[in-house]
Write a structure and sequence with these properties.
With 217 residues, this protein is α/β, with parallel strands linked by helices. The chain has eight helices and eight strands. The termini are close together. It binds BIS(adenosine)-5'-pentaphosphate. The site of BIS(adenosine)-5'-pentaphosphate has 35 residues, from helix 1, helix 2, helix 3, helix 6 and strand 6.
Length: 217
């Protein structure tokens, strides 16, 4: 099984990925996480991507696709089941993923599209806090930690993502609305698209993804 998690910033792609990878034994590939790791490691890709991500813009299709290929290659001998979180985001990336699916002989992915209103997305992103140590995610509005600023799991400090500020969020949403239409239309026309309400509680969304996948596969 291969899955793509598609949806606007803050729609719950990362949250659902954590639930799905354990249940379906998928290898999680998040382009956002990989780019943030490259920034922390100060690689050439990270140095090029840093300001782009902070502004809320997209890293170039070519750079992010090269990165994805280099992530799949060493894993492919061990698995043929991937969860692509945050890729593709543009019609060019959709075509690039078609090439990678063929290159690495993967089955065509089911594409989960999580729908959430912009108003809720803004609250989710401005309220998001991530543990600096164990990376657990909290939300000061929807799922607050027991003690403000402290991780319930490992007591590590909770931090905001640098692109979770109002200006970057607004740009991320603008770009999502500009780029997503053709991607959704193409996957819909191929019968690969599963659209779900992403505003329901995480466990409900997860159960609905499971039900939809059992029909898809
Ligand atoms: P990326 O890290 O992928 O960010 P994003 O797409 O903006 O999505 P987020 O991580 O903000 O949100 P999410 O959908 O994972 O939601 P989450 O589960 O965390 O990308 C970052 C940047 O990298 C991009 O802007 C771009 O610059 C670059 N990039 C990445 N991929 C790229 C690509 N392919 N091409 C070019 N550039 C790329 O949830 C959010 C919050 O909501 C959390 O607080 C969570 O607890 C809460 N929440 C989640 N689900 C629910 C629920 N059901 N009910 C209530 N609260 C919920």
């Amino acid at each position: 099984m291969n899955l793509v998690l598609f949806g606007p910033p803050g729609s719950g792609k990362g949250t659902q990925s954590q639930l799905l990878v354990g249940h379906y034994r998928l290898t999680h590939i998040s382009t956002g996480d990989a780019l943030r790791a490259a920034i922390r490691a100060r690689t050439p890709l990270g140095l090029a991507a840093k300001a782009v991500i902070e502004r809320g813009e997209l890293v170039s299709d070519e750079m992010v696709t090269d990165m994805l290929r280099s992530m799949i290659r060493p894993l492919r001998e061990q698995t043929d089941s991937f969860l692509f979180d945050g890729y593709p985001r543009t019609i060019q990336q959709l075509h690039n993923l078609d090439v990678l699916v063929e290159e690495f002989t993967l089955t065509r992915p089911a594409v989960i599209n999580l729908q959430v209103s912009d108003e809720t997305l803004v609250l989710r992103m401005t309220g998001r806090r991530i543990c600096a140590e164990c990376k657990n995610t909290f939300n000061v509005y929807f799922s607050p930690p027991k003690n403000a600023g402290v991780c319930d799991v490992c007591q590590g400090p909770l931090l905001k993502r640098v692109d979770d500020n109002v200006e970057s969020i607004s740009e991320r949403l603008r770009i999502y609305h500009e780029q997503s239409g053709p991607v959704l239309a193409e996957y819909e026309s191929r019968g690969q698209l599963i659209t779900l309400d992403g505003t329901e509680p995480s466990q409900v969304v997860f159960a609905k993804i499971g039900a939809a996948l059992s029909e898809f596969y």
